[in-house]
Task: inverse folding
């Protein structure tokens, strides 16, 4: 029996090493362009994506995640935009790097839901581990992390239902990965003048549902939520309306040429503690997953918000690293 146990331990060593070795997720924000657009772009910031992918490939990442708004909705873009966006992922596919995404508000047209399902929703035939799907919400497992992808425009009650689904999936798993991440498009809060977040027009809308949502995610082991939509880099800690649960969240800078001005920041009594804020940039993010911690690195370049020429490789600089709180 002793020799059998030693033999099984020998066989499991590569698996255990894979689960504990650090690994990386590259994250990008909105890739839809803004007129005047490049001919043939189909509403996709083609040059930005090519440059960002070139930079991302330098980091030996396990996957790339985009948090929505993959193509614009003007002209021919609604019909051809997502196909064009998928085509650009050949750069990743040639390197064996999987791509995962959620829909954004620009991808929420009714017929785009079916396009998204066909072009981007992962399947078990692709070898995706731990795949769980619920309409266009889905979850996967990779090494020591569960990753959940939340669809656009859920109502407050549906947001609660999503958080309960994540918690349920985690509680019934035979083995539960150490980390749990959520990716979606709209933000947990908004510092922007036009006031728009997951919960409606104001940060404190649907407070009761927010409290349950935060509690469920915390109970499921979620500590970090990644979003897009506002076209500015904003890393912050947010507390639930009842003051009982906190999450760290990132609003991704755009991966296209649409940028937003400096916002009117919320007052000091806000539930939000801003950690980093930058406007007028494009960026990609490298999230390194360790056995018991996660570190976010931001690589930013100037973005004039006018053309689809995109930044040059040498323009990217690294912002301060940030260790995601795990308590």
Result:
């Amino acid at each position: 029996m002793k020799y059998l146990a030693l033999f099984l331990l020998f066989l499991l060593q590569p698996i255990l090493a894979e689960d504990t070795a650090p690994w990386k997720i590259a994250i990008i924000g909105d890739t839809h362009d803004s007129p005047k657009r490049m001919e043939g772009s189909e509403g996709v910031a083609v040059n930005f994506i090519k440059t960002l992918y070139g930079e991302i490939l330098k980091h030996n990442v396990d996957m790339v995640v985009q948090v929505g708004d993959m193509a614009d909705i003007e002209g021919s873009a609604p019909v051809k935009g997502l196909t064009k966006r998928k085509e650009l992922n050949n750069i990743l596919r040639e390197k064996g790097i999987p791509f995962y995404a959620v829909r954004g508000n620009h991808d929420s047209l009714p017929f785009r839901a079916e396009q998204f399902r066909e072009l981007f929703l992962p399947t078990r035939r692709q070898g995706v581990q731990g795949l769980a799907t619920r309409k266009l919400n889905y979850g996967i497992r990779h090494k020591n992390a569960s990753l959940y992808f939340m669809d656009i425009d859920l109502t407050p009650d549906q947001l609660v239902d999503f958080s309960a689904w994540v918690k349920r999936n985690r509680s019934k798993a035979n083995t539960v990965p150490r980390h749990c991440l959520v990716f979606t498009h709209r933000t947990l809060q908004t510092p922007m003048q036009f006031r728009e977040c997951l919960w409606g027009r104001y940060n404190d809308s649907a407070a009761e549902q927010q409290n349950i949502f935060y509690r469920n995610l915390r109970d499921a082991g979620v500590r970090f939520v990644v979003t897009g939509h506002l076209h500015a880099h904003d890393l912050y800690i947010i507390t639930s309306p009842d003051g009982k649960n906190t999450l760290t969240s990132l609003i991704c800078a755009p991966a296209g040429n649409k940028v937003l001005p400096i916002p009117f920041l919320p007052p000091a009594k806000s539930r939000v503690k801003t950690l980093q804020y930058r406007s007028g940039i494009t960026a990609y993010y490298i999230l390194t997953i360790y056995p018991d911690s996660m570190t976010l690195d931001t690589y930013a370049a100037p973005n004039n918000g006018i053309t689809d020429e995109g930044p040059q490789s040498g323009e990217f600089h690294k912002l301060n690293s940030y260790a995601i709180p795990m308590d």
About this structure: Residues 2-20 form the longest helix (19 residues). The chain has seven helices and 15 strands. The CA atoms of residues 110 and 257 lie 25 Å apart.
